[in-house]
Specification:
The chain is 76% helix and 5% strand. It has 225 residues and is mainly α.
Length: 225
């Protein structure tokens, strides 16, 4: 499978209006789902940013600003936004408390990943490898922790809150993300960050379906009361 600026811009162009509609529709009936409704829009922005990185690399132009933007989402934002989204939906008090700790863990871990990039712009570089963007990063954990363990922590923080949710539809989305990790890790490990974010963006369309079904169920219950 080949990736390109066209693929990124196309994904962003498709998700952008869908994301805006999803937010507008969700706000009107269930504010606890609002954070999930932002997923498609945020992924759209992230894909558009990567499209700009593609153009910069293909034209040999410095891409520091868009790279910072992409790494903000991939290394920080999703680490706290995913558990926050699950926390907002959770009704079980014990699970809600545990999800709150996941939010703190994601924020703290994400900051340790991204702050060094801000302080040392030589700690990251981007290049095109096998028609995918390769983000080469240096992490503060590299000196005492295998990169695979860092990836495991990241995966647990992002996926666990979804699988841990009391709602079936959220668990299904978590399972989809979890399966995509293994697929991308096996076939595209050389450019994992870029490709996984792309697949996650595509999978976020499931949330549009999820939110639509949730609204239909809620309206049906209201009509029968």
């Amino acid at each position: 499978m080949c990736f390109s600026a066209t693929a990124s811009f196309t994904a962003g162009a498709v998700l952008l209006p869908l994301g805006l509609y999803c937010i507008k529709d969700t706000i009107s009936w269930n504010k606890s789902l609002i954070s999930f409704s932002f997923f498609p829009l945020i992924f759209a922005i992230q894909q558009i940013i990567e499209g700009l990185i593609w153009l910069s690399l293909e034209n040999d132009v410095e891409a520091h600003l868009p790279v910072y933007g992409f790494l903000f989402f991939s290394h920080l934002f999703w680490l706290f936004w995913v558990p926050l989204s699950a926390w907002m939906l959770e009704k079980d008090e014990l699970k809600k408390k545990l999800l709150f700790y996941c939010i703190l863990a994601g924020l703290g871990f994400g900051l340790t990943l991204t702050i060094p990039f801000i302080l040392n712009d030589n700690w990251f570089s981007v290049s095109i490898v096998n028609r995918s963007i390769y983000y080469e990063t240096t992490l503060i954990y590299d000196e005492f922790m295998p990169r695979e363990f860092v990836q495991l922590i990241y995966t647990l923080i992002v996926v666990s809150p979804l699988l841990f949710s009391s709602l079936k539809m959220v668990k299904i989305f978590g399972l989809m993300i979890f399966m995509s990790i293994f697929f991308v890790g096996y076939y595209y490990n050389y450019a994992f960050i870029s490709v996984w974010c792309y697949f996650s963006a595509i999978l976020s369309t499931y949330l549009i379906v999820m939110l639509h079904r949730s609204k239909a169920v809620a309206l049906n219950k209201a009509a029968n009361c």
